[in-house]
Design a protein that fits this description.
Layout lengths: L1 H20 L6 H28 L9 H10 L6 H14 L5 H29 L1
Helix pairs in contact: 1-2, 1-5, 2-3, 2-4, 2-5, 3-4, 4-5
Length: 129
């Protein structure tokens, strides 16, 4: 439980940092920093989900982010599995992305769709932990 709580706290800190990025005017530097904060927040989100699922006996072995997302959806921890899969795909794209137009599209997805999903996860975990 200690590991899960620590991971959750790290997730909340990362999410708060990501939200801070949207308080600034979206210059190229701010957008690039926001995308990096998104990558970090997503990594902590799925790993926190994994820890939660393990703690509650859903899984007992290492799994991929996709498998964790699918299981979290089945367990009704997250409500929109499709958005979470898209979040994962966008996160994966960012690792190898040099297309400015696509990175701006992902930035807008974060702002308009993904932040809400991160917040819903935070609230769910806040209630159960």
């Amino acid at each position: 439980m200690k590991r899960l709580n620590e991971r959750y706290e790290d997730y909340v800190k990362a999410l708060n940092k990501l939200k801070e990025a949207f308080l600034e005017n979206p210059t190229e530097l701010i957008i690039d920093g926001t995308l990096q904060r998104y990558e970090f927040t997503f990594e902590l989100a799925w790993k926190t989900l994994k820890d939660y699922l393990e703690y509650n006996g859903y899984i007992d072995s290492l799994s991929s982010p996709r498998a964790i997302i699918q299981l979290a959806f089945q367990a009704k921890i997250i409500k929109n599995g499709n958005i979470w899969i898209q979040m994962m795909l966008d996160r994966n794209l960012l690792s190898h992305l040099y297309d400015e137009e696509k990175s701006r599209e992902i930035y807008n997805n974060i702002k308009n769709k993904y932040l809400e999903q991160f917040e819903l996860l935070k609230r769910y975990l806040q209630e159960v932990l």
